[in-house]
Design goal:
- The chain is 58% helix and 10% strand.
- By secondary structure, the chain is mostly helical.
- It folds into 2 domains: 5-95, no CATH class; 119-173, K Homology domain, type 1 (Ribosomal Protein S8, Chain: A, domain 1, 2-Layer Sandwich).
- The chain has a 3-stranded antiparallel β-sheet with strand order 1-3-2.
- It is globular, with a radius of gyration of 16 Å.
């Protein structure tokens, strides 16, 4: 499946968030939380976009993305109007269906396409874990957890948050 405009928008917003962090801008916790929720909801939508019930998921995704975009563009405007306009242009191109950020199409063995400033790790389980529990861990530790297969997840986020979430997941397997 090709990238959806909402996926491109999400990728651009993650890049903007990362760039703002590198510039020393304080990002509100609510934005980071909404980034994770948007990614999870996009993956949920992509699982079966033909299901009529997915229309409500599209609205949720757009609500998350609009909230993230409003906050990040306000922060970008504090840096400069040109900086804000550069990101606005990318977002407009994505909304027209253009691919602005290239995303790896296959599942590589190494981390390609990890947003700058994020660490990433893949975990393979012998038995699948509850998606609900993993979402709780993602929310608690401020990471993004994506299912690549039923028993393989990718965890994205700040290095310390990824480590902490891995310790929590490992506790399920200690006897």
């Amino acid at each position: 499946m090709t990238d959806l405009p909402i996926e491109q928008t999400w990728l651009i917003l993650v890049e903007l968030l990362t760039d703002l962090r590198k510039r020393g801008t304080k990002i509100p916790d609510e934005v980071t939380k909404n980034v994770r929720l948007a990614r999870t909801t996009i993956n949920f939508y992509k699982a079966d976009p033909t299901n009529p019930e997915m229309m409500s998921e599209l609205k949720r995704i757009n609500d998350f993305l609009n909230s993230i975009q409003d906050t990040l563009l306000d922060l970008a405007d504090e840096i400069s109007e040109d900086y804000k306009n550069e990101w606005l242009d990318k977002l407009m191109r994505a909304s027209r269906g253009e691919t602005v950020v290239e995303k790896e199409k296959t599942t590589p063995k190494f981390a390609v396409g990890v947003p700058a400033g994020f660490s990433m790790v893949r975990v393979t389980f012998e038995e699948p874990l509850s998606e609900e529990r993993l979402n709780d861990i993602a929310e608690e530790y401020g990471v993004i957890i994506e299912f690549e297969e039923d028993n393989v997840v990718a965890i994205y986020g700040d290095k310390d948050n990824v480590k902490a979430s891995l310790k929590e997941i490992a506790s399920f397997f200690q006897k």
